[in-house]
Amino acid sequence: MRLYLLALNPTDSVTEGFLPAAARLGLDVTVLTDRPEAHRLVYPGTEILECDVRDFRAVISRISTHHRADAVFTNSDHLQTQAALAAAYFGLPGKDWRATLRTKDKAEMRRHLAASDVDVVRSVEITEPVAPDVPYPCVLKPREGVASEDVVLVDGPEDLVIRAKEILDRRPGTVLVVEEYLPGELHTLETLGDGRIRHVLGGFHTELSPPPYFIEERLTFVPAHPESVQAQVLAQLDALGVGFGACHTEFVVHAGRARIIEVNYRAIGDQCDLLLARLLDVPLFEHILRTHLGEPLPADLDVRRDGAARLEYPCADRAGTLTEAPAATELTVEGVHLTYRPLRQPGERHPLYRTNRDYLGVLRATGTDQPTVDRVTADFLAAQRWEIRP
Predict the structure, then answer these.
(1) How many CB atoms lie within 10 A of CB 9?
(2) Stretch 151-171: mean pLDDT
(3) At what angle are helices 97-104 and 80-89 packed, to 10 degrees?
(4) pLDDT digit string (tens) for 324-351?
(5) C-alpha gyration radius of the chain
(6) Measured at the alpha carbon of residue 43, what is the angle toward residues 38 and 44, in degrees to the nearest 5?
(7) CB of 73 within 8 A of CB of 16?
(8) Do both 272 and 303 map to the same domain?
(9) Would you give the end-to-end CA distance of the chain in angstroms?
């Protein structure tokens, strides 16, 4: 059976998750990408074909002139609609392209939730640095952005115009969304469905950098959100038509009310998916791929329920050259399994992005007792050193 995997840049999710899972399932994999050389450097043994993967017509053409497809899949935020359309064209299981479009386009998501009488958030699209009539503070962000890039909290009309001009100067032609700020603690809900049943895998409590930016600095695993909160989030996902494959949903809770911030219709990234697979002790990546092969999910995933986990992302706080940093490490301390992976190497020079591109590394910690996980994590990080020089 042949799996076509659509990708932009190489990611840990694909390299360490989906490709090994495909091999365990005995699948022949063809990677379609607009950056073939980058992928060949990471996994030279995999068939990689160049393709304009942002164009669904190019994807369909490339597949139809190659081997017959049994599944078309992507874990990229940017390529969900293209993969969904290609899968539908070849009569293969996949996500509804309308749902992938609604979740990718943040303005359309707001419109659809409002039209469905599920949630109403004041939201306006702009293409030039103007200050529309919105309540302040508000959030400014790209309509189809990812990773909190160019997402900023603004306090008033003058600040909004300045911030919008900065973004549009860097990214000409970008459509921006201005929406009311939703207060509350930030959480995630991780789900996996096959179009028939949907499993809730748990979620995370996310701690962010100080405003006005929204960099995710720390995530703590939440085995189960309160039933009423979960029901509210699932109702909003139902309204959007989300229910096939993996989905990573970010939402805030304020005064008992759960409101979606954004829906990433794919598995959670930044190595959280790798942590989930270990923590829950399930073949997570295989389950996701099986849904795209048309196989039903089991009624019970038999996930491990006694896990505790935390992820930490040491961040650059200034532009410059990384001159000192810890190497990759894997060890167990007091029953807590720690995996540290650097995301930058000494000698690399970067500006300050104020997004997750400022991450210097990622620490995954899993155990069975949250206080112990938290303490061991803090001790490990305190013993490390990162130095950035101008």
Answers:
(1) 12
(2) 95
(3) 170
(4) 999 999 999 999 999 999 999 999 999 9
(5) 21
(6) 90
(7) no
(8) yes
(9) 51
